[in-house]
Design goal:
Structural class: mainly alpha
CATH class of the largest domain: Mainly Alpha
Strand order of the largest sheet: 1-2
CATH topology of the largest domain: hpI Integrase, Chain A
Largest sheet: 2 strands, antiparallel
């Protein structure tokens, strides 16, 4: 058990707020956060060392893993409890919406985000700029966009994502269907010579991830996972000819039989492109099918 986990356990023992079940879930959740922070490259010596950047990094990780809004709300509740108990309540935003997360009872929020070109140009690192373009053009997760190796990935009509780049180690392909995608790939292949990735040769993945977080937050480009949602919604419109439910499209009950069939087919295709084995997760991006 590392120093941060031990300190969080002690914090839980000193502050027994709520029922036994609440305390147990909170302790487990905080221990998991300590492990996640270590994975993200943050070595906190004590619970009191938490800063806003740590909260931002955790939320971005949860969004990137497609956690449900209910799950993220629970985690934010535990995170606020942690911050309050160490006398740093302002470390975590009080409004969940600040992180792109809806409140309980709200209609599921549309997390799609378009790229702000002014903020994009303000990013200093060209490797990070290239990774962001991949997120926008192909709906890649942040980790996939950082580990992307153009020489190994780019084919005539698709890109191939290797298992070591993806969540859960599931290799997949994403089709190249637009001129914008081809231009992004051409630009990146011109920038990256040989078989390198979008991580500078002198840096590790964790070091580049921390640089990514710092530079995007510095220019106000938050929640880059929103580009993945925008990609999914654009693909839905291309495949069906209609906007998806979460973007103002028809509800399932209002669709014709042909539209329902097209909806189902599009969800299967988009889920595969995003790297999800469960069709239900597409609801997060497109809105509920039912």
């Amino acid at each position: 058990m590392d120093d941060l986990t031990m300190d969080l356990v002690r914090l839980c023992r000193r502050n027994r707020d709520g029922s036994y079940g609440t305390q147990t879930n909170r302790k487990r959740g905080l221990a998991a956060m300590a492990e996640e922070l270590t994975e993200l490259g943050y070595s906190l010596p004590a619970a009191s060392s938490i800063k806003p950047k740590h909260a931002e990094a955790l939320v971005e990780k949860w969004l990137d893993e497609d956690k449900t809004e209910a799950s993220i709300r629970n985690r934010l509740t535990w995170l606020r409890w942690w911050a309050e108990k160490v006398g740093k309540p302002n470390v975590v935003q009080r409004d969940n919406a600040a992180y792109g997360v809806g409140e309980r009872g709200d209609i599921t929020r549309n997390r799609a985000q378009t790229l702000d070109r002014v903020k994009y140009r303000a990013i200093e690192c060209p490797y990070i700029q290239a990774s962001i373009l991949l997120q926008v053009a192909f709906g890649l997760r942040r980790e996939e966009a950082l580990k992307f190796q153009p020489q190994a990935a780019v084919r005539a009509d698709h890109i191939t994502l290797q298992a070591s780049w993806t969540k859960g180690g599931r290799a997949r392909t994403v089709p190249i269907t637009t001129l914008e995608q081809r231009q992004v790939l051409q630009s990146i292949m011109s920038f990256i010579q040989g078989r390198g990735s979008l991580i500078p040769p002198e840096l590790s993945y964790v070091e580049q991830l921390k640089r990514f977080e710092y530079q995007t937050l510095k220019v106000g480009l938050r929640n880059t996972h929103g580009f993945r949602h925008a990609y999914a919604q654009q693909r839905y419109r291309t495949l069906t000819g209609l906007p998806c439910p979460i973007a103002g499209g028809k509800r399932w009950i209002d669709m014709t039989a042909a539209e329902q069939q097209a909806d189902r087919s599009a969800r299967r295709q988009i889920s595969a492109e995003l790297g999800h084995s469960r069709l239900k997760i597409a609801d997060t991006y497109l809105g509920s099918a039912f």
